[in-house]
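Kindly draft a polypeptide, keeping tokens residue-aligned:

***
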Amino acid sequence: ITAMEDRAPPVFVFGIIADIQYADIEDGLNYLRTRKRFYRNSLQLLRNATRRWEEQRVRCVLQLGDIIDGFNKSRSASEQALATVIGEFDKSPADVHHVWGNHEFYNFCRETLLASPLNSAAKAGSGSDLLGDDIYAYEFSPAPGFRFVLLDAYDISVIGRDESSEKHTRSLKLLQEHNSNSDLNQPPGAAAKPVFVKFNGGFSQEQLLWLDEVLTLADQKQERVTVFSHLPVHPYATDPICLAWNYDAMQSVLRSHKSVVCFMAGHDHDGGYYMDESGVHHITLEGVIETRPDSNAFGTVYVYEDQMVLKGNGRISDMVLKYP
């Protein structure tokens, strides 16, 4: 990446960060008790990121979900924790686009989220037809010739839908068909798909059709599209337990459009990367929450006409992402 200096300046630059999971509590362990979680320090790591982004003059920031931890809920600290983290983001002049993850839904119901600062759709200017149907997905153009699409990976889910809704009923039925455990956060047996756990979700047919239309238009305009989701959709870019329920349906939409260059996700705190057979880069970002206080976990992406260059910090590696 030393050659970066010899190139023409980038078309634009954006910041990326995932799984901050801030809570004002002592350090703890993950669900499997194999990784340490640094709840308070995640705020400091976010501060490190926003300072660097300001120096790098990023045009916008993509926050890939799980901005605060589910532990806030039982302590009645959800609003306070969210205000603290949003306050940190607000210090930076760049627009922040928020993706929703499972921890957003542990803290707030969908209606509350839509009315909160975590609904960044208005910043897109274009909005989306889906928002009227309570699907939090939208797209915008950060610069001419480029398009960003934010997906709602909990559109079909048990945690992301109100219990009285038809989508909740459908999601629970789907989950129980694939997972017979009494604790639905425990993955089903070996023969089944491990993706069917309660902390994951999927994309409705309506959302997939909308994405297909957005990408068709982008193909026609010869744009370069990056898609953002809390849940990864390629089994080689993540631990399979972290995949979206219908990752295969999402993949087939992505694969049928030449405009797609990159798919960025969070959720799997160990991160991951895979370039699929169509040349699309699937990046799973390492999570802030499981990053040691003396390290970092954020990226800055320099977007050029022929490639993107991800400059990682701390646990996140540098990467050159050539367009397919």
